[in-house]
Design goal:
about 220 residues, two-stranded antiparallel sheet, about 50% helix, about 10% strand, alpha+beta, Glutaredoxin
Length: about 220
Amino acid sequence: MASDSTSRRSTCSFYRRRRILLIPVFLIIFSLFFSTPWSLPSLNLSGIHSSLSRASIASLVKGPPVEEIYGLLHFVTSDDDRMLSHSINPAAPIDLSVYLGGDQPDWKSHMRKLREEYPLIVFSKSYCPFSRKAKKLLEMYNLSPPPKIVEVDLRDDWDFIKIILTRLTDHSTFPNIILNGEGLGGSDDLHTLRAQGKLKKMFENAGMIVREDNVKEQETQ
C-alpha cells in the first residue's frame, strides 16, 4: 500500500510539473497571437470611382501622363461631341484607343502637332470664379498660340474628366492648367508664378509668344 501511495504521489507531482511548464507556453502563444497585426484583404473598388478621394486617386498606378493628357485633349476637341463611356474606369490609366475612338492618326506626329497648337491647356468651369480669375490673367499676356480652354462643366462626362486630371496632375480642382504637358496647378499657383517673375519665361520656354509688353512681373532675386 505504501508503494502504491508513493506511486500516486509521484504521478500527481509529474502532472503538476507539466501544468506549471505549460502555463508560460500558453501565455507566449496568447501574446504572439494578439500582438500580431491583422488586416483584411484589399477590396477591389475600381468600379466605385465617384467615392475615390484625391489621395486614393493619386496613389493609383499611373500611365504615361503627357501622352494621356494629349489623348484626352484629342478626345475633348473632336468634332463629333464624344463623351467618355461609363464603362471605363477613369481612376486607372486609360488605353489610348479609348481617346482616339475610330481615329487612326500617326500618334507621335499628331501629339507633336497638338503640343505645338495647344502648348497651354486650361480645363475650366465656366461659372467658377477661380477659373475666371486665371483666364483673365492669361488674357493679359496675349499669348500666341492662345491657351486652349476646355469648359468641362458644359460636358456630361465632366466628373470623369475631373478624376482623370486628378490622377494625371495630382490637382483635383478647377481650373487645372497644363503647360507643355506638365501641370501648373490652379489659379493661385498661376498668380504665384507671376508674382515670382517666372510665368512669362515659362510661356516663352514652351514656344509661346508673349505679345503684351505691359504685363508686370516681379524680377526673381
